[in-house]
Amino acid sequence: MDALELIKTRRSTRKFAAKPVEEEKLSAVIEAGRYAPSGGNSQTTRLIVVRDRAVMAKLAAAVKEQFSAMEVTPGMYRSMASAIRASKGDRYVFHYDAPVLIITANKQSYSNNIADCACVLENMMIMANALDLGSCWINQLKWLRDNEAVLDVLRPLGLEDDERVYGALALGYADTPDGLPNRTPLPRTGNPVTMV
Fold first, then answer.
1. For residue 45, what is the domain's CATH number?
2. How much is the pTM?
3. Is the pLDDT of residue 1 over 90?
4. CB atoms < 10 A from the CB of 53, how many?
5. What's the domain count of the chain?
6. How many helices (H) does the chain have, and how many strands (E)?
7. pLDDT in tens, 148-176
8. Which one of 36, 77, 171, 194 has the lowest number of neighbouring Cβ atoms within 10 Å?
9. 3-class state of residue 177 by DSSP
10. Count of other CB atoms within 10 angstroms of residue 46
11. Ramachandran class of 26: left when φ > 0, alpha when ψ lies in -120 to 50, beta otherwise
12. CA–CA dist 180, 13 (Å, integer)
């Protein structure tokens, strides 16, 4: 696929097969993220790549516990409200049981931290599509970025004290009959353009 087709056909995958991601494909996705643009070419985004199922389970349990203690409030961002509601059930796993979770973090004091992490995540999602992998942008760790229980799980994985998570990527093969992610482009109903 050419670049525009890769962008247009990139869709979020929320059901993953148990099949592991090959090292060469994972390396390509990570490398695409590392080559994302950054403010002033700072290159301060940290990528924490989690494949260990026990570590993922520990992180998922901490996230579930923290969200389940929250209540939905009027006007709350609908995805966060959905995560809180889902966390009160038995089967909530914030990363959809993907075989790989790539966490992006950056310095709290750096004013471009969210934008730089977003560029890394977008590059990785497009590369995943090119490699027939499914991916999904994950915000739950960003929403809990100052939560001590979650930080206690993330610090031993390499998160520095002056860093926080600004996004993550669930990555793996789609749990579909052909193992490929859904690539049907959605029509654009927003993102208006004004030409001057």
1. 3.40.109.10
2. 0.95
3. no
4. 10
5. 1
6. 7, 4
7. 999 999 999 999 999 999 999 999 999 99
8. 194
9. coil
10. 16
11. alpha
12. 10
